[in-house]
Every structure is written in C-alpha cells, then in structure tokens.
Batch of 2 targets.
Target 1
Amino acid sequence: MKILIIEDEKGLRESVENYLSDGGNLCETAPDYQSAIAKVSLYNYDCILLDITLPDGNGFNVLKYLKENNNPDGVLIISAKNSLDDKVAGLEMGADDYLVKPFHLSELKARLMAIVRRKSFNGSNSLIFNELVIDLLAKEVRINNVLLKLTRKEYALLLYFIANKNKVVSKNAIAEHLWGDGADMADNFDFIYSHIKNLRKKLEEAGAKDYIKAAYGMGYKFTDQ
Amino acid sequence: MKLLTKYNRVNLASAVAVLFVTGLIYYKAISYILNDQVDKDILIEEQETFTYVKQNNKLPKIEQYKDQHIFFVRVNGPVERRFINTDYFNPKEHEAESGRGLITSVQVKGQTYQVTIIESKVETEDLIRIIFCITIGVILFLLLVLSIANRLILNRIWQPFYNILQQLRLFSLTDNKDIAISNSTIDEFNELNSAVTSMASRVKTDYKALKTFTENASHELLTPIAVINSKLDSLIQAGEFNAEQSSLLNDVYDAVARLTRLNQSLLLLAKIENHLVRDDQVVDMKQLVENKINQFKELFVNKELDLKCDLTAKEIKASFFLMDVLLNNLIGNAIRHTPASGTVEIMLNMQKLSIKNTGTGAELPGDEIFKRFSKSANSEGSGLGLTISKQICESYKFELSYDYETPYHCFTVNF
C-alpha cells in the first residue's frame, strides 16, 4: 500500500510515517504545498493524508488539483480546524474522510484502512485475517464458516484491532473510537475491559486463536505472532 | 422622554413665559398711556374751572358731559390735591362705572370748595380689554403654529437620525452587511453617519482579526497536542514497560486527553459566543434524546440507574451539532453525578426539556454552576459543560435553569 503524507509539522509527519510504514506499506511525505503537488502529479497513491493548513498554500487546493485531474487516490483530511464548514467543504470537494487533530495514530490507521478498502473493492467486500472472515457490507464475522454473534461495539472493536494489527492500541484511543464525544465519561475503561473480555470469549468459543494481548496495562495488541 | 417632546416642552414653556411677561409690560404701558391721557383731560377741566372761577368769581354751572362729571362740595379747611381711581354712579348711563378722578380745591369768595372731577374709564378699559384679547389670541395662535411646525419639521429633520438608529439595531458582527450611508442636509447627522460607519467597519475588522486569531490559536495549540499524542502512540510500540513506566504513561495519556477536550471546549465556546455555528435545520428532539439515551445505555446499566422517560414529539429549528452537544452535556452530567442505583428522569414536551437526577449533597449554587471552570471537587469534567450548554441555549433564546426539588437536581430548558 502506498501512502502520501502531506503535513508540515515535522514531529507529527515522522510519527505518522513510522506508524504506517510497516507490513509492506510504503510511505512518502510532503512538507508543503509545492512538493505535494509535485508528488501527486507524478505518482498515484492508495491514500493521501492531507493537512489543510500548509505553509505555502491551502490543502483544499491540493484536493482541488486532484479532482480536476480525475485522480482516484483516496483522501483523508487531517486538520486542526475543527470547524463544521471546513469539514463539509472538504467532503463536498471529494475527500473521503475528515479527521480532527489531535488524533490517535490507531484511529488514523483505522480510517485510512477503511478508505483503502472502500477504494479497492476488487469485487470482494470481505476482510480476511487468518481464520477470521469479515463481511464488511453485512457486518458479519465468521470463523471457519461459523457466524459470530457480536454486538455493535464488539464488531467495531474487532475491526479497529485488525486495522491496527501488531500495534499497541491505547485504552484512550479505544475509548475515543467507541464513544466519540462521550469518551470523557468516568467508567469507560471498565467498559473497554468488559467488551474485550466478551470479544475474546466469543472468538475463542468459535475456535479462533487468542489474538488480543494486554499490553503493560496501557492498552491492547492484536497480533498473531 | 423623546427629544422632540423635551424640546417642545422647553420651547413652549419659554415662549409662554416670554409672551406672558411682554403681555404684562404691554398691558402696563397701555394702561399707563391711557391713564395719562385721562389725567390730561382732567387737568384741562381743572384749569378751565380755575379760569372760570378767577374770571367770574363763582362756581361754574355744573355741566354734565357724557363721560366727565364735576362736583363741588363746600368744605372747611384745606383739601389735599390728589388723583384717585374710583367707582361712581354715572347718571347718564344709569350704572356704576369705574373712573379716574382728581380731587382739588378752589376758593370762591373766601369759601373753600372741594372740586371732584371724574372721568369714566369704561372706554379706556374696553380698549385695554380688546387689546389684551387680541394679544392672547395672537399668543395662542403663535403657540399652535409653533408646535405644529416643530412637530413636522423636527420629525423630518430627525429622520436620518432614526435611520442610523435602525441600522445600528440591525447591526450584526457576523453578517456581511455594512451600515448604509444615508445622506442628510444636516452636518451633524452626516458626521454621526460617517462616525458610525467607520466604527462599524473598524469593529468588523477587529472582529475578523479576532476570529482569525481564534482559528490560528486553535491550530497552533492543537498541533503540539497532536504531536504529543502521536509520539505517545509511537512510544508505546517501542517495547517492554514495567508497571511504574506504564502507570506514568497512562497518566500522560489521560492528561493529554483532558487537555484536548479542554481546548476543544474552549474553542466551541468561542464559536458559540461568536455565533459561528450556523447549520440550523429542523431537529427532531425526541429522536435525538432517544439516540443519546441509547448511546449512554451502558452507563445507565453499569451504574444501575433507574431511567424514567416521558417524551413527546418536539421539533426545533437549531444546529444539530449544538443540540447534540447540549444533550451530551446535560444527560452526561446527570449520569456522572447520580450515585449508583439513583434515578434519572428525562421529560420532553412542546414547552420544555427537563432532566432530573437524584444526587448526593444539597442544592447547588444556582448562579455559580453556569460559570466557566466551576465544578464540584470530584468532577472529572472540564468545568465548561454547563457554560457551553447555557451559551447554546442563549444563542437560541432558550432558557436553561436549575432547580432543586429534594432529592432531585433538575435542569430545565424552556424552548
């Protein structure tokens, strides 16, 4: 998978690059408007992470350039401007998703994977991880052809984990993913614990391996290694 | 009091006072002149009498003129010569009249006679009366004309002022309309006009600068938070951590999460205060409340809260996003502050939305709770939730109030 990161903030750009570029992913970066235009006019990417505020131009113009040239690359806008107008404008101009800074890298990866999956359907709408087969349209999970009964939150959690496989996902990131604005409620971590416990149990009972590992009390890691 | 009324009042009062004083002076002057005329007539008569007595050495025959009468009375001793104002009986007219008289004396053959010459003042007084009436008439007419003219002219002259006032009333920082310049022939109004116009454009420029500042501040602040966040996410991939390090990292995560929420709350508050959220649409409140309850279902279940709902359909025209924030805050607060196994009651009807919850402790200070960063000691919120809720309600002219009906804390939004 080929990803272009257009972001002027060096610290953030590097973290994103490091986080995304493993498991066969190739990341390229552009710190400003000029180099971004140069890259997108030369190469195609599976997904472009686009910061709206660039030192020498507006990120919206990059988006405009892509659409004018019928570029099929997926675009995920990352912006500090948490304004509805920007969000609406961005999505109307053809961006695939909009993520507000600050965000968790795991959330970014999950959104990015969702865009890439949507873009490259290839006639199949299922996501396969070892013995797990997930039908993304029907939102169904099967293990060895046995249907798993998951709640909405458990399903979201599983997808989130698979998108971030082999990564430690913090409890804060999970809370924000599952509850969004309601994430500041007190007992969320208890809920995460019980959701994960249930998910694990269901996976195990259906004959899957135990992929969910607790990571030093900070979060969880979904891995088959 | 309107300027016109005030002006008219002062104007009329001074006009009446001045006219009254001049009327008085006028009256005095005319009566003085006419009295003087009468006195002269009387003096001529006195002179004629004296001449007659000197020539003939006897009293003249009493002749009765129409308005002049003379009487002779024999007296012993001197008579003081003086003018008098008196009433007398006019035999010709057969009625009592007021008159002006002169009492003097004359010597005829060693005998002193008191001579009284009286001239009727009826005609003089009639004349004064007529003059006085005409004056009063003129005064009243003048006042009438003045007040009508004032009303008409002033209303027209002040029209530009009322135009400016109307424009100021409609002035809004957030729309793009400028104050239109309406030309007037009056310099003062033109000055006021240009001052108001330049003030409005200055305010708009400042406001725009402030808005840009807010946006920039949000960007500048959120970017480093984003960097911290992403570095933390990268750090925990790095390898093994012992319990102490994990606990430290968890604390940092929590702090960053709080910092993020705080910053977002402040930005949201600034946006609401500046009326920058304007995606108004018809919002189905019943549906929204039900969604929220569903979203918080786990929390209700987990704390074993008893939830009572009484919802009727209610649609309002508002920003969906802000209504969502409002319900999030109010219902979230109710859940957060209700002790385990407590009760939360949510009621929605055409007039109001009320959210009640049983709580620990006594009544909250009604004014304090809506202020920024006012929160109970054990609250984990940002301290901005109720301030934001209040601002949202105010921007839609709803009324958010707090009551304590033992044992319920009750927050009510009156639509």
Target 2
Amino acid sequence: MTMTERPPRTAPAGPSVGRPIDRVDGPAKTTGAARYSAEYPYPDLTHAALTHATIARGRITGIDTAEADAVPGVLAVITHRNAPAMRPAPSFSMLDLSTFASGTSVNYLGTDEVHWNGQPMAVVVAETRDAALRAAALVRLSYEELPATVDFAGAEKDARPQKNSALQSGGATKGDAEAALAAAPVSVDLRFTTPPHHHNAIEPHSTTAAWDGDRLTVHDGTQNISWLRRHLALRFGVRAQNIRVIAPYVGGAFGGKTMVWAGTLLTVLAARVTGRPVRMMLTREGVYRTVGGRTPSTQRVALGAGRNGRLTALIHTSVTQVGRVGGGPEQVTSQSRHLYDVPNILLQQNLTELDALSNTVMRAPGESIGTFALETAVDELAGELGLDPIEFRMRNEPERNPIDGKRFAHRMLREAYALGAERFGWADRTPRPGSMRDGRWLVGMGVASAYHPSWQFAANVTVRLSADGRVLVRCGFHEMGMGGATAQAQIAADALGVPFEAVRVEYGDSTLPTGPGAGGSGQTASVAASLLTACDKLKGSVLALAGRSRESPLRGRRSSTLEARDGGLWTGPAGESYATILARAGRDSVEAAVGSDTRLGAMTGQLRFMSKFMLDRRRWVKAACGAQFCEVRVDPVTGEVRVSRWTGVFDVGTVINAKTAASQLRGGIVMGIGMALTEETLVDPRSGRIMNPGLAEYHVPVHADIPPLDVHYLDEPDPTMPLGLIGVGEVGITGAAAAIANAVHHATGRRVRDLPITLDKLL
Amino acid sequence: MRPFAYVSAPDVATAVRAIGTEPGAKFIGGGTNLVDLMREGVERPGTVIDITALPLTGVEELPGGGVRIGALVRNAHLAAHRLIRNRYPLLSQAILTGASAQLRNMATAGGNLLQRTRCPYFYDGAAACNKREPGSGCDAMDGFNRNHGVLGVSDSCIATHPSDMCVALAALDAIVEVESVRGVRRVPMAEFHRLPGDTPHLETTLAADELVTAVELPALPVAATSRYRKVRDRASYAFALVSVAAALEVDDGTVTAVRLALGGVAAKPWRAYEAERILLGAPATEESFRRAAAAELAPATGRPQNAFKIELARRTLVETLRQLLTEGSAA
Amino acid sequence: MVEIRMRVNGVSESLDVPPWVSLLDVLREHLGLTGTKRGCDQGACGACTVLVDGERINACLALAVQYTGRDITTIEGVAGGGDPHPLQTAFIRDDGFQCGYCTSGQICSAIGMLAEHGAGSASAVTEHVAATGIALSGAEIRERMSGNLCRCGAYNGIVRAIQDVAESPR
C-alpha cells in the first residue's frame, strides 16, 4: 500500500507541526474507554424512544396510548396533549449565529400538525430502552391527511431563484453567458441529477439529559456545543450558564450533528417531564426520520469554448429542495465561481419547497454535488475538443477569481495536477474510451478538480504554562475524528517551544472557553489562530516575569527577538527555561486567554470577528483545492464498477499532522466514492417516506469498495491563514464523484449524469 | 421487541412437541433474520423455542458420496468444510458471498432456508404488503422495486428470496429433511419454497409445526466443476441483484451434465430447468449458452426499475458458463 | 426473566434478564461494558462485533439467553496482561480510526478474522475456495473485514494495521 509521503516543504516546520504524530485519543478509542453521549452512567437513568408520523402532512385526530401505557416499566407517554410547551424555534439572525442551529421550525409535541413523514409525534420514557421502544411502537395515531408535495422531481418546476444573503449568494453573472454559449463553436449543455444522501455516522444521534432544578446537563454528540447550549436555553427558558453540554467524543457527524434535531430537544423535554435523567439513542431508522440529509439536486451545466480550448461561456444552474419547516439553500454553484477563467458566466441556484424534513449540511454541502456536475461537463467538453482533460483545465486556469477579479490568497491547482499526473501515471492513459483493458475488465482513468472554500470562526482559548513545564490548552471545540486535540497540541508545543508530550488539550465541554463549531472545515484553523495569539500573550507574560529579575538573561529583551525552544525563551545562546522563570517569580503557572465568555465579551468578540472575516472575504478568495485521479474497472458483462486506484493531490496549505490530515482527506474520498457509486436515499414519491432507512439498504462503502488511496498535499502555507493552514475535512469529497464518472466514461464510452452510477445504467 | 416466552429444547422430539402445543411459536437458531424482524415488529411470536442445543451440528459424508448437513451448522463452518469446498465449491462460494463474516458465524443452514425477503415495504409497518398482511395490497408494485423479482411473480407480490446459499442448494438438487410429531419428511429443494401466487405470505411448504433438521446434498460429480457468481451494487455485504449458481461438465465439446440456478430474480431460488434442458447434449459454446439463457428468461417480466435484471441475468448466466468452460471450477 | 451465566472478558457473570434482551444490551446496559457499540441494531454495520469462544459475531442480533455458558470477549478484554493487543497498537500507529465509534468492532472483528484465516478458511474473493494456504492479501483483508463499516473512511489505515500484525512474527 502506498502511504503518504511528504514532499520537501518550503515552510519552516517546527519540531511538532507537520509530523505524523499518533492521535492522543488513540488509547481511549482503541480500548473502548472513550465515552460517547449514551455511555455516561447516571443513577436512576431512564430511556426514551420516539413515535413517528407515517403521513407527510395533516393533523393528528387521535392518539391512543393505552397499549403503550400498559407496557411494564413505562413512566410517561408524552404527546402534544400533555407535553409542557417549549418556546418556539428562533428564526435566523446574523447577530446570533446560534439561531442557525434550529433543525426545523416545528414545535415538537406542541402541535397536532404533521409536517413530514416521520415527524416525532410522541416520546415514551421507560425504565429500559427496550420497553421504551416497544411502547413507542404501540402508540396509535390517527390522522386527518392533507395534500402534500413530497416528490422532488415533480416539484422541480415550481422552483424559485434563491435570494442573496450575507453568507451566500444565489446567483452571479458576468458578461452574457447564454449568447456566448450560442456563439461557441464547441459546446455542451447538460443536465445532471443527484439523489438525497444521509450522513450515516456510525454513532446514531444520542442524548443523555439530566435536570437539577433549573440546571441542565446534556451529553450530546454535537458539532456545536455553544449553539446547542444557547438553543436549549432559548427553547427551555433557562439561562445558558445553567446548561452544561459535554461532548468530548462524537461518533461521526459529517454535518448531521450541526443542527439541533428533535431527538435532543425531546430528551431534554422528557427529562423535565419525568424529573429523572433520560437517555435517548435514536434507532437507525429514527436518525433517517428526524435528522435531515443532503438535498437532491438537478443541475444544468452548459459550457462553450473556442477551438483553441479556451472557455467562452459557463452556465451552472441548480434546483435543490428545502422543507417548509426548515432547511437552507445549498451552494451548488460555488466552485463554478472560482475554477475556470471564463469571460461569460451565469450562475443561478433555485429552491423548491416540499412537505419534507429540512435538508441540512453534509460534508461539503454544495461543492460535493456541484463539482460532480461541473467537472463531468468539463470532461465532456474536453472530449468534444479532442483535448486531454488536464490540458484543457490548464488552458483555462485563472490568475484571479473569475467571477469578480479578486485575488486568490493561494492557488496551486497547476502544481497539484502536475504532481498527481506523475504519481498516478496519467501519461499511460490512452485517450479513446474503451481502449484500456486488464484481462476481462474495462479500465478507465478520470480526473476532476476538488475545491472547497476555507472558513474561519471565532474561538476562545486559554493556555496555561505550569512551573513543571506542562502546558494546558483549553477550548470547547469538537472531536469527531479530525484529531483536533493532537493538532492543537502540536501547534502549542511549537509555539511555546515545549515537547509535544508536555501539552494537554481539553475540549468538548461547555465549561471550557467557547470553541468554534466543527463545520466548514474551519475548526482547526479557527482554534489555531486564537491559540497562537494566546501563546504569544503567554510568552509576553513570561518575558515580563523574567524581566523583573536582574539575574535573567532575558531582562530588557523584546519579545519580537525571542525564540521559544527547549522549554524556555531564548535569544541566540542566551535565555532560560520557563521553569526557572516561574520558580524565581514564585509562580505555579502563567495563563493567557483569547476571547471572553461573558455576555458582553462574547458579543464583542463575535462582532469583531465578523467584521474582520467580512473584510478578509472582500479582499481574498480562500480555498482548498486539489486534483483527483481515479482508475475504475468495469465488468463488461454486468456493468459493475469498482474503483481500483486513486491519487489525490491537495493544496491545503500547511499540514499540522501528516497522519491525521491524510486520513481526513481519504475519508472525504471514501464518502465521494459512495456518492458516486452506491449512495441514495429512496424517498417514496407517493408518501414522502424514506424507504431505505438503514445501513443494509443505504449502501455506504465497505472495506471491499476502497482500494489503497494515495493521498498527497503540497504543504505550501496559505499566507493569509494562521500557520498557513487550510482545513482538510471537506475538500476530499469534492471532485471525487466526477473523477469516477469521467473514469467510467473512459472505460465504457458511457456518460452517466445521474448519481449513483449503478450497473443498471451501464448495461 | 414484543415480549415472548422462551423455551430451550434439549432434543428434536421436545422441540417439535413444543411447537405443536404453542400456537404462534417460532424456532430460533442463529436469530440473524428472526431477531431483526422481531425488532421491526414484522415477526411477533408468543413463544420462541431455542433449538441451538439440538445435536444437528454435524457435516457428514453419506455412503455413495453425498453429504448430510445438520440444520444447525453455522454458515461459516459449512463454507469452510473440506467436503463442501472440494465437492461443492459453488456452495462454499455462495455462502461466502452472503452477508458478513459475523453473520455467517451466527446464521445456520436451516435458518438460511427460511430467510424472509428484504422488500422495504415488507419491513415497513406503514406500508401495504400482502406478504406481511395478506390482502393489504402491495406498495412495491409501483414503488421502489429495483431489487424485486422478474420470474414467477404475481399480482400480489414481486418480492425476492434473499439467500445465496439456497441458490446453490437449488442447483445441487438438495433434499431438505423436516421433522414434526407426525414424523420425518424429505422435501426436494425445488419444492421447498413457493412462488407467491395469491398467497405470498406462504413462503415454503413447511408446515407450521415442522422443524428443518438437515439438508442433504446428493453425490453429484458435476458439482466439482462449479461456480457461484453474485452481482451486486456494493463489492461486499450486499444482497444480490442477480446471482448464478452453475455446474458444468463437458466431454469432447459437448455438455454432458449441467446444473443452473438463479438468485435475486424470484420468490424462490430459481432452478433454470429450461436452460439445462437446452444445454444438455448441446455443444459447449457461447452460442448454446446464449440460447439457453434467453430461453430461461423468456417468461420474465420486469418493471421500469427492475427490467434490467432480465438482461443482467441472461448475461451473468452466459458469463458464468463461459468462465466454467475456460477457467474451470472455483474449487 | 431468565438466568444467564457467561464469562465476559474472563469474569464469570450471572444475571436475570428477559429473554428478548440482546447480548449487546447485556454488555452495554447491564454490565457497563460500553466499549461495544450500537450502530444499527440490525446486523448491518458491525460496530457491535464481539468474540464468542473466539468467533466474531454481531451482538445486536444475538439474544443473550442463547449465549449462556459461552466465553465472550469485548474490546475491554482483548489486551493480555496489561499489554495492549498488537492490533490496538497497530490501529493507533496506522491511524486505523477517526471518530473511534466503529473501532471496537473493527478490532474485535480483525482478531476473529485472523483466527479464521489461520484456520484456513476461504473468502468470497479467494480464487479457488478449495485451496490451502491462502495468502492474506489486501483484497482478502478487505473482503473479510467488509462486515465492519467505517463512515469516517479509515479503511486504508485499518487494513494496513491488520496487515502489519498479520505479517509480524508472533
């Protein structure tokens, strides 16, 4: 198996940063000691389960709970008839980003209205999980059914253009793309469809909630502790300070644990009703019925080019779905603003509303499915032009951001393609479709560009240096598998000049300084930015302590001349250890903080951050990008497609941990392989009901689907980002499906523009 | 899960007596299908009779060269057994393509015969399903039916039997031995499963009080040259879209013995008698294979989502025979 | 209620449970061994994989009562005498996990898989099922481990870790 090798780096690496250090949570995760949200022991614990609506829209006319009440061990059957009122879900406001966290606008158990097929209409609390599940299945609902719009394909015609917002624009134009398309000597005008997808984190959404008077403790595998805490405070009418959210381990999330969904709210509600701690681990079906997934899409990509291989027109439009009770636009055309130098561009995203559960963010929302359409169309046009698809891309590689002429903070797509082509052996590809074979297998090679914008959020961090040389970093960030604690320890170790082993990182708890959410591939960079500032402050404080003593060789030195290494501060050969400085000053520790969690502090911090962020966005276009190379084998008889080789080269700035970053990139590619070949949520167009709500019928890739994935990164720092790092969580999935579709075309001569590429489409 | 009474039977006589006196009782072996369906509320036995203590775990060679497989032999053990690997490689292969290693370590031979369909409307209590609730209708007809049947289907049901092992057993003319208080019956594999007709809830010819005690494989020299080919969406851990169990003996360019069965296409493992009839004595050529496959699939009827299975079954049948001819046995 | 007795990680356990309680629930809810994970409760993900008398099974589809008298090993019991199991070490070194939720099942499954391979069993990708001395190639490991889903996509690291352990002298 090819393992990741790092090319020589031009950025100065520290002793820790960049190294492939083992995850600090490895021992906990490989011994079963790591506790997830459903695994905290509570005396007197009870268990909850949900009863779901089986119609898409209507009203409850009757609830018969007699059988459920009679199940031994049942403590409460809570329905809209007896549930205490929750406050309504907040609508979105830029002033408080936590308002973004409402999974839906539905006031669960506060209404007899059914808004989607699967909405929870009752929650049962019992002494055991088994009794709760059994009783929940025995709650009988009767309905008055109302007409519902549940079929995305049928509702496509009613789509309306998406309005622009501060965070996302629904469209953009430059020149006259339709006219340029019509005039282009070579063009393609194509329609693509992608189905709904679900995250399918292996840990089903789980919550343990315990009230103590007006104080609440919640264990919940959330991607945003701070949002969850504020959301619960709002819904249950208590002060956020009274709520503690604990989530050190999250068993996979991929966007599915960003919003606050019914399961979390109803566990907290049930705990309040029963006065006992309540745990609810959703069934796998329950996850599908109550947690949103990725929207389906239809997309049009039309491209025009001159015979010289220069693009003259790019049109990318999309239709995606939102629920009437929530969900948002998906930035399907995002990458089409940035990837190609085209004089005439038309982008427009459109939305259609369904009586369905809200769609939600899922790994690279927008770009994952948007790159599928764009990068397949680019491959098709290259074919029409008789050009190698890499050569075609290089002829159209922009110097500045195509849509608005902004500067790229960093862009090395050319280098990614060059290195990828070499490593993958692209030169061995014979261009004609169907021309390559290995025994009975048809072999195909495809490429596509990966693209994901980089984000940064506010993060509060404290760093404490103890006299014994140990360092404690505290920040309420999230660990869903990214290896955040390991990466931040590496950063702190180098910033303070201490060994990696001396740093401990606390995370995943609302008692810690407020961390950023885990989303937008922005967590590592966001924490790093504050951590570096905090370390600078800390060194300043230590220098000040040292300067008080005449004995210190650091006396009178300026912090800008100092180097942190060997457990102390140095200027050339002169310097001394932290231990010496702290001991002389009689201090056990020194601490520095960035950000404040007081109400005023939080608001100021948020405003300061947003203004800086907006300014930054006006100045630069920042993104991770990459080149995905894929080889497939297609059985000529059955049409079975198997991915046989992969090379991905990514431009993700500085890499903090060579091991965990490569794993994240691979993880994205694996999900991209699933998206390309097997994944599809089946929503019955008659009922709006998901018909494959389980892992046996929703096919995520298994071991046998995944060959060794050769993953590289260029490791050139982005000068506008902290330590030069750009997030790696999402870029790996982008372009993956297109690379596969292009490889399938190369193997078979067949273009499949409707995901997933199942064998029936190739027979 | 709905509560049930639990009884562990120490011997076959006790087991079959118990099931006769407990209406709605079910035997449980490996439980891999039954426990899942009980949790889903599809199966609701009042009593569960545990048969895992019964002495039905042997794989024995029979006089004359056949093999007797105890009903409680775990799938993994059966697939790994020397006699099966050498003499009936298609059976080993079929088992190994099914489910996962963990499930194969749990599931039993008898239980595998009694697997129920994976039709999503059968699993979903909110849907109409004639199999789960006779007379309620069939939501699969105009719903998601990409993985449904194309042969032997009826207006009441188009579900498929999900087993791989059974497809091999059908090709091998296995005999299922069943026992009740009335005595022992030997049921040929071809008569064990039923087509849906108007009664899709009746899936086998097993009486409610009968216990599968063994499966016997006849001595079958042709089985030594055999293969099982499973076509599915995922590379592993997925049910078949189409599968083919095939055994072929060719002498001097002529087919002298052939056994064929199809999976994923019908409510029962589909023995391809018509294809066998055409092939026997015919030249062992791709042309013959094509003719046989076309004849076997001639009565097939598809729907927009699953019609591809007809062509896929034809092609897979031809390809598996071609492979047996050119590459030989999977043994 | 039925009485069940089993050895769990070398410790004799005896408890009264209703017959419909799964082995997974006995481990997690009754014995507090939460290292074994619930991912689907349907035998479709492998997160609940444990070893019964050395063989890997899905604890979610196992009625606990049917495992009376058996020897159960969970992730909490795979290490021997204070030293981690070589697979635990290899999973960390080769980054065979991300979120960690499927990890217990992957490791238990890999232990069972190596034993099955050691006993000479074939797999669906073995070219000749009757062969002896089947080499444990990457493809063989991937097929044999396909009952354990990892949504984080740590498959490469997992396979590498297993390969490392399989190839190292014991």
